[in-house]
């Protein structure tokens, strides 16, 4: 690859969508003037209209910018889907627009050059006042991950029968979530992939410089473009790739201790239950163990800064709350919940397989994100937790106390740890080689 790719980003879907073209666009050979437009689904057809323009299609409608800087505004885009801060906002984008029918809704897809996309992602994921080295590190991993995902999607499309992300039996339900869930576009615009809010947020000169300074740079391990992952806070030790996603070992995505010496393997064996409990109930020294508001504000947007207990956290459920939550999320009646038993943990202490023991049903659930989804209305901070039981009556707990470590899946770059490293004066290549073992930087275009 020697030229910059064009991405297809899934923004939103609905049966009725309102948007404003802030400059002229093209549909085929027709020029559509700026102004307000609607597109809606009626009897299996998309109807796009506004002012004197009308077009109808059963397949897709493509609006191309006359110039690369042309922009449009989408009304009521949902952000933070399934999180506690889910909300709608109007968002502004550059690039082209594709509308297509997907599951009885209209899917809106933004077509945009990769480097323009990155400027928005880094501005959405990070504070523009972040250290330059942190911004450059994030630019490289976001670029690497994107290209790796595009390549992976092509491989899966060529051999779809061999790829399965879910197995369910009477006694076990194992599922992982990855970006190949998206069939009609490369990545989505929300946290499931990477936060992408177009040019809604001001793209600062520091972010632009970070993208320009690393133009085309990616991480490689041997001949492979790295599937470079990141999460908010590893909790002190990062996690192996295969424990969160498909059972495929990636030598550069393995557990590291988030402290000096850089890139070192952890001494603790957190796959053992006794060690995991001791680790999770302890607050060890780590780059990501910080309460410095200045540093946290580099990584956490205002709505995330309300969360101050991400490194070590506690949540409690009554018997009724937990049993109703599990029934709602799994659609299984477990009866009264007796125990939550970790059967398998990863190197960071994150639970990969959890046995739910109830009076009506026992079931093993995994992997980490499915566990987090079942045990929270939104997402549990992480699956690195231990459980204590209280108010026990005839063997049935009345209260469950979950104490945990970290925020997110924990694989790859730890955003809060990397922010601390940037403040300590580490360069972006040092940050990258700390979290991704044995990699090298390479310019792709």
Q: Numbering strands along the chain, what is their spatial order in the largest sheet?
A: 4-3-8-11-12-1-15
Number of helices: 9
Overall pLDDT: 91
Unreliable stretches, pLDDT < 50, 5 or more residues? none
Anisotropy-based shape: globular
The count of strands amounts to 26
Question: How large, in whole angstroms, is the Cα Rg?
Answer: 23 Å
Percent range for helical residues?
10-25%
Cα distance spanning the termini: 7 Å
What does this structure look like?
The structure is a single chain. The chain is α+β, with helices and mostly antiparallel strands and 445 residues long. The chain has a domain at 6-207. Helix content is 22%, strand content 33%. The chain has a seven-stranded mixed β-sheet with strand order 4-3-8-11-12-1-15. A hairpin with a 2-residue loop joins strand 3 (25-27) and strand 4. Helix 2 crosses helix 3 (205-213). The mean pLDDT is 91.
Give the structure's gist in a few sentences:
The protein has nine helices and 26 strands.
Notable features of this structure?
445 residues; alpha+beta; seven-stranded mixed β-sheet; six-stranded antiparallel β-sheet; 9 helices; 26 strands; 22% helix; globular
How would you summarize the topology of this molecule?
Blueprint lengths: L5 E9 L1 E6 L3 E3 L2 E3 L2 E8 L2 E6 L2 E5 L2 E6 L5 E9 L7 E8 L1 E7 L2 E9 H12 L6 H27 L7 E3 L3 E4 L11 E2 L16 H9 L3 E5 L2 E2 L4 E2 L41 H8 L12 H7 L12 E7 H12 L6 E9 L5 E8 L3 E5 L1 H7 L10 E6 L8 E7 L7 E2 H9 L4 H8 L4 E4 L2
